[in-house]
Amino acid sequence: MSKTYVTRIAAGGVLGALVLAVAAIMGAPSVIAQENTENTGDTEVIITETTEGAEGEATTETDTTMDEEQSDEASPEIGEQAPVQDETEAAQQQNNDQPAVADADNPYAYTAQDGDNYSVLARKAIQTYGIIEGVDLSQAQIVAAETKLAADAGFPELDLGQVLTFDVSDIRGAVEYAQQLSEDQIASWQTYVPYVDFDTSNNGGK
Fold first, then answer.
1. Burial class (CB in 10 A: 0-12, 13-18, 19+), 90
2. Residues of CATH 3.30.30 domain(s) within the chain?
3. Is-contact 157 121, C-beta < 8 A?
4. Is the alpha carbon torsion for 127, 133, 136, 142 positive or negative?
5. N or C end: fewer C-beta atoms under 10 angstroms in the chain?
6. Which of 43, 48, 39, 38 is closest to 16 using CA atoms?
7. CA 53 to CA 100: how far, in whole Å?
8. What is the C-alpha to C-alpha distance for residues 148 and 171, in angstroms, rounded to an integer?
9. What is the pLDDT of residues 83-137, one digit of tens each?
10. Predicted confidence (pLDDT) per residue in 143-152, tens digit
11. CA atoms of 19 and 16, how far apart (whole Å)
């Protein structure tokens, strides 16, 4: 491949001749044109150089600065591109904005009502488990089981309308704990019974 370089030099008659002479001595490329301008009398010397490449083809090197600048102006900045919201993320955000609803088919899923707390809903879950599984617990054992269930969860606070779902295995573990209490331990839990409301029919939204 070969390249052609074009250089334009404007000079007076004497200077132009000097440029031609220097170019000839230095083995510079051949002069292909000379023109005298009408107004200034300057001589415009156009010098070209052709360098043969491996394939013997002649190529003219051109200035691409203007094209690159125009390309840069046409290309939008990355920061200017409009953000594209992922459809899955948008759908998830929409679901998060909707109020949670307890699973109606899960007897241990509740929605916190005004006045509900974790222990009250744990009590309801223990009582419901006893009815479904046919387990007979005394009121002292119910208090012990609900306290065990709440303690294992860290006695969390509930927000109004919050959905709380108890795992049946956790409920079973609390019930078994209460069933294994000694008579003295049951007597200790019995002291709390008078202060407990065991009617949970209006708690948990179901």
1. exposed
2. 2-62
3. no
4. negative
5. N
6. 43
7. 75
8. 9
9. 555 665 655 555 455 556 778 889 999 999 999 999 999 999 999 999 999 999 9
10. 999 999 999 9
11. 5
Percent of the chain with pLDDT over 70: 51
Exposure of 113 in the CB half-sphere (CA atoms within 13 A): 11
* Neighbouring residues of 33: CB distance < 8 A, sequence distance ≥ 6: 44, 45, 46
DSSP-derived letter for residue 30 is P
Written as six digits, the tokens of 176 are 């078994």
Does the domain at 2-62 match CATH 3.30.30? Answer given as: yes
List the Cα angle 149/155/156 in 5-degree steps: 120
Q: Which amino acid is at 1?
A: M
Sequence-distant (≥ 6) Cβ neighbours of residue 180 within 8 angstroms:
none
What are the residue ranges of helices labelled H in the chain? 13-25, 65-74, 87-97, 118-133, 139-153, 168-179, 183-190
How big, in percent rounded to 5, are the helix, strand and coil portions of the chain?
A: 45, 15, 40
* Position 54, amino acid: A
